[in-house]
Amino acid sequence: MINFDNIFDKLVSETHTIHSIVSPLIANDLANVLLSLNQAPFLAEYIREVYEVTENSDALLVNLGTLNESKILGIKEALISAKKNNVPIILDPVGASATKIRLDSSLYYLKHYPINVIKGNYSEIYSIYSKKLTTKGVDSHYINKEDLLKISQDLSTMYNTMVVATGKEDIISYKDQSLVLKNGNQCLQKITGTGCMLGAIIAACTSFEMSMEAIALAISIMSIAAERADKTKGMASFKISLLDEISLINKEKLKERIMYERL
């Protein structure tokens, strides 16, 4: 069994500030998810304050969901602050497989800043590894799981970062080690921003311990909450039920349902 008891105990008993630069499309839900897990969200991207906000935070989540010139400048300033002040950085390269600016930005951040975790769907991780665009949108492109395992491990070694590739099964890799998590529900694909929410949960968990176990805990919180959520009435009800289940999650529920493979 993956041992994340200590991380979960800290998550529910200690409050960390998670600075999240995200799309306004998901900002409210993301903030509420962090609050429901006893964490303090701070959502700032204005260039004149992001350095200070990051400096006083316990983790920085950079999400490329909605880009503009001002946001790109704010991200750079936040990354400079995180690097100088040893704040863990989680990069969610939304759409890196779809447009050149997103892919080039992701590669630049990986090269110049100490990214601790990069989390993307299969196609985003493949694009960053291959440095090629693969899709016309932000959805995952089918890639063989065995190939993704090797790509994730190679990418992790290349940039000395933990790699999370999300899809039908979620892969966590650090150099030559990998965990494959097998929980989840297809309804997550029909709700905007669930991947962004997962990025925030990963930022929260890794702010307490930078480890594969912490990331496995974060993924399991989202995936098992999705399994437990009400799927009988429609997507609006499912979303509300998902948020309820995240707020009600505990170690017993996680241990009862978690399915994984260590490679």
UniProtKB/TrEMBL annotation:
Q: Which residues bind substrate?
A: 193
Lyase recorded as keyword: no
Instruction: Report the pathway entry.
Output: Cofactor biosynthesis; thiamine diphosphate biosynthesis; 4-methyl-5-(2-phosphoethyl)-thiazole from 5-(2-hydroxyethyl)-4-methylthiazole: step 1/1
Binding of ATP occurs at 119, 166
Please list the reactions this protein catalyses.
5-(2-hydroxyethyl)-4-methylthiazole + ATP = 4-methyl-5-(2-phosphooxyethyl)-thiazole + ADP + H(+)
Required cofactors, per record? Mg(2+)
Signal peptide segment: none
Biological-process GO terms, alphabetical: thiamine biosynthetic process; thiamine diphosphate biosynthetic process
Coiled coil stretches, renumbered: none
* Top class in the EC scheme: transferase
**Organism of origin:** Anaerococcus nagyae
Give the function comment from the record: Catalyzes the phosphorylation of the hydroxyl group of 4-methyl-5-beta-hydroxyethylthiazole (THZ).
Q: What is this protein called?
A: Hydroxyethylthiazole kinase
Q: Which controlled-vocabulary keywords does the entry list?
A: ATP-binding, Kinase, Magnesium, Metal-binding, Nucleotide-binding, Thiamine biosynthesis, Transferase
Q: Name one GO molecular function term.
A: ATP binding
Classification via InterPro entries: Hyethyz_kinase (IPR000417), Ribokinase-like (IPR029056)
Point out the gene that encodes the protein. Answer: thiM
Report the sequence similarity comment from the record.
Belongs to the Thz kinase family.
EC number(s) recorded for this UniProt protein: 2.7.1.50
